[in-house]
Amino acid sequence: DKALEFHSKALAINEKVLGVEHSSTAMSYNNIGEVYRALGEHDKALEFHSKALAIDEKVLGVEHASTAASYNNIGLVYDALGDYDKALEFHSKALAIDEKVLGVEHPSTTRDYNNIGGVYHALGDYDKALEFYSKAQAMYKKVLGDEHTSTATIYNNIGEVYRALENYDRAREYLLKALRVICRVLGSEHQYTQSTMRSLHEIYRKVSPDTSFEDWAGLQ
């Protein structure tokens, strides 16, 4: 509610001072859309992200990083709605722009790989999910290093795909990589740490319930 209040104030100023077709106005629309997405009000989120996209395409062009960001935001909303075909369409548009304009090693491009991997994961197309997650992993590891939470997130995502494939050895390997980073960086009580621990415990109960969890996970 407070986020919406302040982003709305910013929007009102930008519309009045800069006009409704300015890139800063588009940014305010995107920010408001992000709040509505966080609130689960997906129709409102699409409304504001679409306004931002229309401005970006007109003012900055269809091959600008800000336009790609708007495509990405719309893709995230469709992903949340479970409309994976539309999500894939918009994330793919974002990726095509980011690869061309920013390059394959830019964080925005890596974000696109991860998001597309997430859509394929949700669709149950695990080979494609692993393909795109692996691209994201390679870039995050190269640009950000092994100890960054974004790299850990990709490890977690890959681990979850292997868990869905019932390849529990590989799932454990990647989830443990994720756990060691996020526990150290974010702490043992953080929601991401707890989520990864839950995934590991579920695998443990399936494959090795007669040993201690600490021994099985190598967490001694």
Question: In short, what is this structure?
Answer:
With 220 residues, the protein is an all-alpha fold.
Secondary-structure-derived class: mainly alpha
Radius of gyration: 20 Å
Molecular shape: elongated
Determine the strand fraction and express it as a percent band: under 5%
Number of strands: 0
User: Regarding quaternary structure, how should these chains be classified?
Assistant: single chain
How far the N terminus sits from the C terminus, by CA atoms, comes to 44 Å
Mean pLDDT, nearest integer? 94
Describe the largest sheet.
Answer: none
Low-confidence stretches: none
Helix content: over 70%
How would you describe this structure to a colleague?
The chain is mainly alpha-helical. The chain is about 80% helix and about 0% strand. The chain is built from eleven helices and no strands. About 40% of the residues are buried.
Question: What order do the helices and strands come in, and which of them pair?
Answer:
Elements: H1 2-17, H2 23-38, H3 42-59, H4 65-81, H5 84-101, H6 107-123, H7 126-143, H8 149-164, H9 168-186, H10 191-207, H11 213-217
